[in-house]
Amino acid sequence: MYKIPVNIGDSLFRLPLDILNLLRDAGVCAEAMGFEAYAVGGLVRDLFLRRDNLDVDVVIEGDGIAFASRFSVGHGTRLLTYEKFGTANIVLPDGFKIDVATARTETYERPAALPLVTPWFHRGRHAQAGLFHQHTRGRPESRPVWGFA
Predict the structure, then answer these.
(1) Domain harbouring 136, CATH code
(2) How many independent structural domains does the chain possess?
(3) pLDDT per residue over 29-49, tens digit each?
(4) What per-residue string of b and e applies to 48-86 under the rule 16 or more CB within 10 Å gives b?
């Protein structure tokens, strides 16, 4: 059984410095745009479980594509955007990738259909509440990016 740290900061030292710097830069960029940024998914989960995982996913409370575009300018990256879904892939010069998503609700017209996306910032919902309810079934796996600074 894994001992879960009381404070995720106890596990941050396991991340490479370049990843910590990217997360800090993402938080600074989001804040400058009036947005909030959250590290989500496997990276955060695996920090608690003390597993290695450098799959960086960031959810933006705001316009995720606008965030990714601005972040990319300062880092010399290649940017792939998917307007229909409010998502983007940031590819750094060394090939490392950051997946960015606008905080959103997805609905499906039928099984195996592509999602119909409604951004949360247009609806005034808060990302952490939605992540807690919709994606983690009681185990929130998000962390404000600015908190990594």
Answers:
(1) 3.30.460.10
(2) 1
(3) 999 999 999 988 888 888 878
(4) beeeeeeebbbbbbbbbbebbeebbeeeebebebeeebb
